[in-house]
Amino acid sequence: MPRKKGPANPAMDLAFLKARGLEKRYGTQMVLRGLDFDIAPGECFGLLGPNGAGKSTTVRAIQGLTPLDAGSIEVDGLDVATAAPAVRARMGVVPQMDNLDPDFTVLENLLVYGRYFRLPRAVVRQRSEDLLEFLALTPWAREPISALSGGMKRRLTIARALINAPRILLLDEPSTGLDPQARHLIWQRLRSLRRDGTTLLLTTHYMDEAERLCDRVAILDHGRILALDSPQALIAAHVPGAVLELRRSDGRPPDPDNRHLQWVDSSERVGDTLICYGHDFAPLLQHFGTQPDYLLLQRPASLEDVFLRLTGRDLREAAGD
Amino acid sequence: MAYAERLPGIGAIAVLRRNFGVWRKLLIPSLLGNFGDPLLYLLALGYGLGHFVGQMEGMPYITFLASGIVASSVMNTASFEGLYSAFTRMSAQQTYAAMLATPLRVSDILAGELLWCAIKGLISGVAIIVVAAFFGAVQGWWIPLAVPVIFLAGLAFGGMALVVTALARSYDFFMYYFTLVVTPMFLFCGVFYPLDELPPLGRELAQLLPLTHAVALIRPLLTGHAPSHWLLHLGVLLLFTLTAYVLALRLLERRLLR
After folding, report:
1. B221-237 pLDDT per residue, tens
2. Which of B102, B105, B250, B252 is the best substitution to test chain A (most A C-beta atoms within 10 A)?
3. Contact (CB, 8 A) for A53 and A226
4. Which residue windows are transmembrane per the record (chain B) (predicted)?
5. Do A71 and A22 form a contact (C-beta atoms < 8 A)?
6. Total count of domains within chain B
7. I need a labelling partner for A150 at 20 to 30 A (CA). Which of A194, B62, B70, B236 fits?
8. Cβ(A114)–Cβ(A127) below 8 Å
């Protein structure tokens, strides 16, 4: 578990993980179309994208579980194509779907999993106890998996992924389906791991999660990287200024005559909402704020705005990617 | 893929130990099944039918039957483990997916499962030998040699089952295998009556099935004789094991590494 090592500088050029020209095709469908990215040691790197963007395929490829049609991945100087078991030995994986072993208790899940890494028995015992403590699961050590809530299962999956003291932790949508308390506990633990020097790669479609955790994020769509930078830099580059959302309480489209255009930098209509991007909303507020059936929400620009601007606002079918 | 990648490594033992750990938790119902079912067959057919049959191939019918039941029980147990249990681990529980996030490879998982099928077959085979010994239905100094033979038969039947599992989309698929492969073997491979009773074509066809060869080895060993043509019978079981391993590995890799 946590090794004592200061957080690395994400800007250093010696990459811990190097992905070059990743291409993957299923039948006629191109899932990855030439992905390039580096992850620095100790960095928290986010892969963002709508369903079907290629996030999960990328995560599988990093483990050497998806033969690529082109490209290469190197982890800690090892080529994934030729040394996948050795790569996985220094990697922890938190899958999208919990696949804890239902035939074992909480503690046994860790002990059995440690054997898959061929770790000495005493080491696995000690780490299991430490990890249960770290993820606040100690009181449930002897319980069956079926007794755990969704958040506890996810925490146990994270504990299990740390049993080999991995240098890099891959998390595929770590907080999907969890309540806010459970998410915050998990985020806190991930930040703590990052502080101790573990490199993190997480996929998510929760923008707030990416914004809170990630040093850098790559926004992925249709198997390509559309943008890659720190969340702040992406927001500054793609959505400068602030955001004002207008809605009408009767559900009719707000501002049908487009009078707002003279006061904003740009705007978009999403369903019943008019989203305005700009720097000074005073005239806009003055005009619409006085109208009785208008609802106004002024907020800072977020990664979600960047994401929606880059990937479009069309709804994606929720096919597993 | 490299040749070495196809050979299982020491990781197979971790997979085996995982299955053993689960089995130990359910020891009582599991052993009950191993003893109970064959015991009922032995009593019902051995005594009931045996009364009318009398001798078969120069031995009391219950003795003839006991050795056949040992062989068929190895087949059933190894097949069930390789079909339903392995499929549950692969699909419903996603145990293989969890294992593949560690240094384990598909070949390690397959070899661990295969060894476990054989061990379960061995447990059930030995259980029946113990029960049959109480009735005096097995005898002789060859009995210990039956143990490795039963293990090899378990590998062959487990391997075949794992090939089917690697192809299966749902549990329903296994009904084909049972109806088309397992049940015919149970009825036509010399478990209940000698192969000589079959018409010539049936006798030839039965030679193609692994249970025939398992019975041909196990029956003499449990009744105090050295099996004839033992090298041929061992060879057939080994061939089934190796072919099934190679085929199952290819199918599983295609299924799990996409």
Report:
1. 999 999 999 999 999 99
2. B102
3. no
4. 26-49, 61-84, 114-135, 141-167, 174-195, 230-252
5. yes
6. 1
7. A194
8. yes
Of A97, A99, A115, the CB nearest to B14: A115
Q: Domain range holding B186?
A: 3-256
From CA A204, how far away is CA A321, in angstroms rounded? Answer: 12
Host H or E run for residue A172: strand A168-172
Cβ distance A100 to B103 less than 8 Å, yes or no, reads: no
Run of H or E residues at A40: none
Round to the nearest angstrom and report the end-to-end CA distance of chain B: 14
- Other beta carbons within 10 angstroms of residue B187's beta carbon come to 12
> pLDDT tens for residues B171-180?
999 999 999 9
Q: Which two tokens stand for residue A97?
A: 């779907």
Sign of the four-CA dihedral B249, A321, A72, A38: negative
Using the beta-carbon criterion (under 8 Å), do A101 and B98 form an inter-chain contact? yes
Q: In which band, very low, low, confident or very high, does the pLDDT at A290 lie, cut at 50, 70 and 90? A: confident
List the one residue out of B218, B80, B106 whose CA is nearest residue B158: B80
Kindly state which CATH superfamily the domain A17-235 is placed in.
P-loop containing nucleotide triphosphate hydrolases (3.40.50.300)
Give the relative orientation of helices B143-167 and B210-222 as an angle to the nearest 10 degrees. Answer: 160
- Which tokens is B26 given? 């359910």
> ipTM > 0.90?
yes
- Which regions of B49-149 does DSSP assign to beta strands (E)? 55-56, 59-60
How far apart are alpha carbons A108 and A101 in whole angstroms? 9
CB distance A204 to A175 below 8 Å: yes
